[in-house]
Design a protein that fits this description.
It holds the Pfam family Beta-lactamase. InterPro entries: AmpC-like, Beta-lactam-related. There is one protein chain. By secondary structure, this protein is an alpha+beta fold. The protein is 31% helix and 15% strand. The chain has twelve helices and 13 strands. The protein has an eight-stranded antiparallel sheet with strand order 2-1-13-12-11-10-9-8, with helices on both faces. It has a three-stranded antiparallel sheet with strand order 3-7-4. Strand 11 and strand 12 form a beta hairpin. The two termini are 28 Å apart.
Length: 380
């Protein structure tokens, strides 16, 4: 396979979007291609390489959803169970009602829980460069994350609308632990990682501050201006509060990501993630009923999320109106120092996985890569 167009976009990402380093891996049938641009380490100039361990951010949500659907297939629970059934009282505060919020609501981001990422209790720790340095080694307990999930009132009734809420996935992870008696990490390993043979994939332990070799350094400019008040940030104004562009990125490789928990704390490789999304998109991991439920999608319109996409259970499907009827399914996520996505056409087992060692910069970069690889013109 030749991927001149993809390579040109990778090269352009370094210059246009100020990405330190970027990799792309493509699998189509039995053919594989790998390309890169930029560096894995700004200090040494070391290039990026195949097989690097990277943080996949919110792509971890799909691991949570797959684990719960596997438990349903086993008859342990139903994703239409209420939260109250498994975690009595956890959601019955601040205007929430655990008797009306189901596991399905949590996994589809339609629970009515507020957008957890905007909670001042967390965002103040990492809002500016100085606060990030002070708090980069903080650890979060599950109990703290569950309290965070309901620390602000609901933004809607269950099932009413899509709103991207890490808090819903924190609750989902706690249900996995309550139902099984095992840790979230152990259940993901048992029900997803081992069955798929993902040898470079694991849920990152709460006390880890680095990654196995090989791995790139992680760099971030995802900070508000010094003195900005996180409590004043909204989905509408956050971009105007970001620090001035052009500042040198901060090395954030040593950073405890326990605040991701079951909403996004999986370390993997591009190759492993290609196998993962291929299995989820084609139905080779889950039984037919659970596969169907995973890909029953809801509109994300008005949810301040990725454009031109619908949301399933922990993952997305591009709107067929922009893919000319073609099915393209994927996972993705971003956090300080990392942005990852993988998109697949399950009809011909054609998958693209991309990682940058800095956070999300623009949907245009993703859509340019998808157009070059899949031939679909997606506007931002």
């Amino acid at each position: 396979m030749t991927h001149t167009g993809i390579q040109q976009i990778l090269d352009g990402a370094v210059a246009t979007y100020h990405v330190p380093g970027i990799v792309a891996e493509v699998v189509r049938g039995e053919q594989t291609w790998f390309g890169s641009a930029g560096v894995a380490d700004r200090a040494t100039g070391a290039p990026r390489k195949p097989g690097e361990h990277v943080h996949t951010g919110s792509a971890g949500k799909a691991f949570t959803a797959a684990t719960l659907l596997a438990l349903e297939a086993q008859g342990v629970l139903s994703i239409d169970d209420t939260v109250e059934k498994w975690l009595p009282g956890v959601l019955n505060v601040n205007g929430y009602d655990g008797n009306t919020i189901t596991i399905r609501h949590l996994l589809s981001n339609t629970s009515g829980l507020f957008v957890t990422g905007l909670a001042p209790e967390v965002s103040y720790r990492y809002a500016t460069r100085s606060s990030f340095d002070e708090h980069r080694l903080d650890e979060f307990t599950t109990e703290e994350l569950l309290r965070l999930a309901v620390s602000q009132p609901p933004i809607g009734a269950p099932g009413e609308r899509f709103a991207y809420s890490n808090g819903g996935f924190f609750v989902a992870g706690a249900i996995i632990e309550k139902v099984t008696g095992n840790s979230y990490a152990a259940e993901v390993d048992h029900r997803v990682v081992q069955p798929l043979g993902l040898t470079g994939t694991y849920v990152r332990p709460t006390d880890h501050t680095g990654y196995p070799e090989p791995h790139p350094r992680a760099y971030s400019t995802l900070f508000f201006k010094e003195g900005a008040d996180p409590a004043a940030v909204t989905p509408e104004n956050w971009e105007s509060m970001m620090e001035d562009p052009g500042l040198e990125p901060l090395d954030v490789t040593e950073f405890k990501t326990s605040g991701g928990f079951s909403a996004g704390n999986v370390v993997s490789t591009t190759g492993d993630m290609i196998r993962f999304i291929d299995a989820l998109a084609t139905g080779s991991l889950l039984p037919p009923d659970q596969h169907r439920q995973m890909w029953t999608t809801v509109s994300t319109e008005g949810g301040h999320w990725m454009p031109h996409a619908r949301y399933g259970l922990g993952l997305f499907e591009l709107d067929k109106a922009v893919t000319e009827g073609r099915t393209l399914r994927g996972v993705g996520g971003s956090l300080w120092g990392s942005w990852f996505f993988a998109v697949t056409d399950p009809a011909d087992r054609h998958t693209l996985a991309v990682h940058t060692n800095t956070e999300w910069k623009s949907w245009n970069l993703m859509f340019e890569l998808l157009e070059a690889e899949f031939g679909v013109a997606i506007g931002s």
